[in-house]
Write a structure and sequence with these properties.
alpha+beta, 6-stranded antiparallel sheet, 9 helices
């Protein structure tokens, strides 16, 4: 049960059913109240018509026993005098409630009181006049043994010789009760059926809508089990959120596959690059152990230094890939350019003071790698420039060598890539310097691009946001 209601489909079905149920209950209550109000209003109108008909006869002087509305066919009728004594009533009236008197048998007319003339003079109505407003009430009456609920209307009439009389006439509420009961029965039967239809339709529609999600889930489970990142989840032909989820999932899988493949190549290339200096160093040490006079000390030191630099590059790349936190220090690129160029042959600097925020050590490593690369390929001269362009600091490193072919200007930033396959590994690096430089630039919110310099050689431009 817990697993069932833990599904999105069950929750959507339950939520839709509850919303429709609340709406149906509110609508049903409104319909019942409106129906009851309308039917009670119609009953009140009929009762008022009957009361005014009797009042018209009384205003015309019709005797009590000649009133046409006392036959009981249209409902109970009572006529009360000023003292609330019953002076006329419907035939066969046995019980009544909801009026000013519960009497059912008319009483003889009372003797006139001394103040009757004064009361007549102070009456609000003129003789023969019927009150314009009616007073309504609910009650019950029993006529000829049949008890029913009624809507009563009370109308006052001023007569010539009988004073002010009040006429009560009732209209049965049986139709109102029957209509309300019928409507309530229909709702009690129809609403559960309608809710069942809503729940079933919602369940089916949600199942159909979530079917691609199940496909995505099962494919992701298969990918996890097989560890085959080349597989992709199915993308539905719709243009809804699920289709976008599948597309985003495939993009994530593609990026993950690229990252894993990159890591695999990195490990393979790193193993290959480390194997050469280690094997060379081991050979020299083994020869030295057997023949001390043949020890190539300079070569051993050179291989050790190369191995140390390669290990440092690999560690830096590992820290960059792990998302090492950048510093927020202010770095003067002009001062850094002069510092890195110091002691290098054929390097000139043209720099204006420009500050950026970041890691001084990593930015210094970028500039050092660019200078090492430029000096390795320059014929005689390397130029370093630092300038400000809008909201960016631009560092340019240009040489007068052969340059970089346009088709290779992006590939050289890949790890362990060396364009000159014929050169020796002693003269060339491991192919990590430019890759490290671009990674550091990107992590500092900048870019590193390769182009053609003024002297025809390569031009590397580092662009960083100003501090």
């Amino acid at each position: 049960m817990r697993r069932l209601f833990g599904s999105v489909r069950a929750q959507a079905t339950l939520g839709a059913t509850l919303v429709v149920a609340v709406a149906l209950v509110a609508a049903g209550a409104a319909v019942l109240l409106s129906l009851r109000s309308n039917l009670i209003g119609e009953a009140g109108t009929q009762a008022e018509q009957s009361a005014r008909a009797v009042a018209s006869e009384l205003a015309a002087g019709t005797p009590y026993d000649k009133l046409s509305g006392l036959d009981g066919d249209d409902g109970p009728v009572q006529v009360l005098d000023e003292r609330k004594r019953l002076v006329a009533a419907s035939e066969d009236l046995q019980e009544i409630s909801g009026t000013d008197s519960d009497q059912v048998k008319p009483q003889p007319p009372a003797a006139p009181r001394a103040d009757d003339d004064d009361d007549h003079e102070e009456a609000a109505l003129e003789p023969g006049e019927i009150a314009g407003e009616s007073v309504f009430s609910n009650g019950s009456a029993t006529i000829d043994g049949e008890a029913e609920d009624y809507r009563f209307a009370a109308v006052e009439v001023e007569t010539q010789d009988r004073g002010t009389l009040k006429v009560y006439a009732g209209s049965p509420l049986a139709a109102e009760h029957g209509a309300v009961r019928t409507a309530l029965t229909v709702m009690l039967i129809g609403f559960p059926l309608l809710l069942g239809v809503v729940a079933g339709v919602t369940w089916l529609v949600t199942r159909r809508a979530l079917r691609p999600v199940e496909g995505i889930r099962s494919e992701m489970a298969a990918i996890t089990h097989s560890e085959d990142l080349a597989r992709r989840v199915p993308e539905p032909d719709t243009h809804d959120e699920i289709a976008r989820l599948a597309s985003t999932t495939n993009e994530t899988l593609a990026a993950l596959e690229t990252s894993v493949e990159r890591q695999r190549r990195f490990v393979a290339d790193a193993s290959h690059e480390l194997r050469s200096p280690i094997a060379s160093l081991r050979t020299q040490l083994e020869v030295a152990a057997a023949h001390p006079e043949l020890l190539d000390l300079d070569g051993a030191v050179e291989d050790t230094v190369r191995l140390q630099r390669l290990a440092a590059d690999l560690l830096l790349l590992a820290r960059l890939d792990a998302g090492e936190r950048l510093g927020d220090a202010r770095v003067d690129l002009a001062a850094m350019a002069w510092e890195e160029a110091e002691g290098r042959t054929g390097v000139t600097v043209d720099a204006e003071p420009v500050e950026v925020a970041g890691s001084r050590g990593q930015l210094g490593r970028v500039l050092a790698n660019l200078l090492d690369n430029a000096q390795r390929h320059a014929r005689s001269a390397v130029t370093v420039s630092v300038r400000r362009e809008s909201d960016r600091a631009v560092v340019g490193v240009a040489d007068d060598g052969d340059g970089v072919p346009e088709t290779d200007r992006e590939r050289i930033f890949e790890r362990f890539v060396r364009l000159d396959a014929a050169r020796s590994r002693d003269d060339g690096g491991a192919g990590l310097g430019l890759a490290i430089a671009r990674d550091v630039a990107v992590r500092h919110g900048g870019t590193l691009t390769a182009g053609q310099g003024p002297a025809g050689g390569a031009l590397f431009e580092l662009r960083l946001p100003l501090a």
